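Hi, here's the filled form for the chain we discussed.

Project: internal
Contact: R.S.
Residues: 103
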Amino acid sequence: MPCVRLQTILQSPPSIVQFADTEARLACTVQGASDPFMYWYRQDSSGGIELLFLSRAAGMVDESPVKDFTAQRTDSESFSLQTERLSLNHTAVYYCAWSSHGD
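And the returned structure, exactly as it came back:
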């Protein structure tokens, strides 16, 4: 019988409602995947989805055209997104995702 490995992704907090000019942080954790690629996306009210950051490995985050956010990958399972100063144009749904080496 083939062995099936359970993979989970957890984004926290699940939602944030904050005032403008405050800082915010989202965390993402993947379990059961071996050194996955990890991504942060956002979807604004128009429905368009924008890739914010891609991390191919721990300690490695690709450059992003998004200047008011930063991302950090401290280990193979964790990827965080943060901003020092929220503004109204940051209103969106933010998604963390993962894939096996660029799938």
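Let me know if anything looks off before we file it.
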